[in-house]
Amino acid sequence: MTAESSTGKDKFRGWQTLAGVMLAYGGISGTITYAYGVFLPSMIEAFGWSRSSLSAPYTLFLIIGGMLGPLAGFTIARFGARKNIIFCNLLAALGLLGMSQVSALWQAYLFFGFMGGIGIAFGEYLSVTTLINNWFIRRRSFAMGLLFTAGGVAGFIFPPLISWFISGVGWRLSWVILAVIHVLLTVVLAGILIRNTPEELGQMPDGVTENVWLDKLTFLSSRPVYSTPVDWTLGEALRSPALWLLIIVFSVILFVLMLLTTHQVAYLQDLNYSPLAASSALGLMLGTSIVGRILCGLLGMRFEGRYLAAVFLALMCLGVICLINAGGIIFVYLYAVFAGIGFGGMIVLMPNLIGSYFGRASYPRITGWTMPVVTLAFAGGPLMAGFFHDATGTYLLPFGVAAALLFACIFIALFTHPPVKKK
Predict the structure, then answer these.
(1) Which helix (H) or strand (E) holds 204?
(2) To 5 degrees, how large is the angle CA 172–CA 177–CA 178?
(3) How confident is the model at residue 208 (pLDDT cuts 50, 70, 90)?
(4) Maximum Cα–Cα distance for the chain, whole Å?
(5) Which domains are delineated in the chain?
(6) I need a surface site. Which of 75, 256, 402, 418 has the fewest CB within 10 A?
(7) Per-residue pLDDT for 290 more than 80?
(8) In 359-419, which ranges are continuous DSSP H helix?
(9) 116 DSSP assignment
């Protein structure tokens, strides 16, 4: 063995892969997920289309991104997450370029809804979390926290940056600029940094070298938190009550999030808050979610995930209760902080718990099969809130349902013990 190959094997590539998936996830979040809404006013002004008609491609984007989860899980297991990220994000970049040439509504469905949806289905959440689960076990929570923090930072940076592009060069050229940024971050840089598994490089998850300084910095416990000693198959996981309890919790989290992000601003304006104050509360909630992501990533290496889930769910529940009683501005800010930190923590715990309970080998297939169920659940949140508001003239009932569901999930999380594999 040469010195060069020995060095290549000894140098743990997990942190390099983590940097790559952070670039990929942040790039997708910034140039696609959080970008579409920024373009809506300019495109509506250009074509005179209704807000609902131009919002429909984004709905298609979300549905495709979730419903293709089982197929995405199969391709990741068959070909590796790295190829999915590279090739499917190239397709998504072509979709962004296509958006610069839109002249009819069906083209937005094709370029953003269909091509963008395939990009996130195959090249975003499932692929990047699979890579984290492949490379990290003891430090999985910390790595997940950093990964999802990248998405939060992108959500903070890209919308105003895109708005600046549009005001400077117009919306068509801005789509082109986003396509270039997307390729650079998710295809070129991510493709250079990412490797599928430590085993293909002759390495092990977490590396074999002790790093006392890093362990202290990240609060790594001397007694590792639970991680399954055996890998589960897809069939075994689907027959486990623990997986379905986790699916219920995850579905409620995203159901409530979509309900809040869609209707919170209108609700606060109904309470006579200014549009600026109402939208600032939404921004504060999403901003404080970064705190929750980092906090969960650190605490997840010391405390069991189901206990952390109960705490973060309780914070979300308190946040919604504050929103229901938002007669004073202090309750609006308490809502934003509690709900933001709670959601930020839960978005990290979702993939972390599945990896901890069911292992690495079938993670993409298992998670892929959960995604259609979760997608159908969160897609109903905004519709339910709108229906009950129209029927009663108030958001009290849908927000009350959201708080009740979160409260119930606290107990579901606590009783979701690590599953025992039957022999």
Answers:
(1) none
(2) 95
(3) low
(4) 74
(5) 13-197 (1.20.1250.20), 234-414 (1.20.1250.20)
(6) 418
(7) yes
(8) 363-392, 396-414
(9) I
Specify the pTM: 0.83
Distances (CA, A) of 226 to 247, 300, 303, 405: 19, 10, 9, 27
**CB contact at 8 A, 288 and 336:** yes
Residue 379 is encoded by which pair of tokens? Answer: 């897609």
The answer to whether 298 and 218 are in contact (CB under 8 A) is yes
Neighbours of 230 (CB within 10 A): 9
Distance CA 214, CA 349 (A): 21
pLDDT tens track for 212-270 = 555 555 555 556 778 888 889 999 999 999 999 999 999 999 889 888 877 777 788 78
And the tokens for 383? 């519709």
For 38-91, the pLDDT digits (tens) are 888 888 888 988 777 887 888 888 889 889 999 999 999 999 999 999 999 999
Place of tokens 């309470």: 271
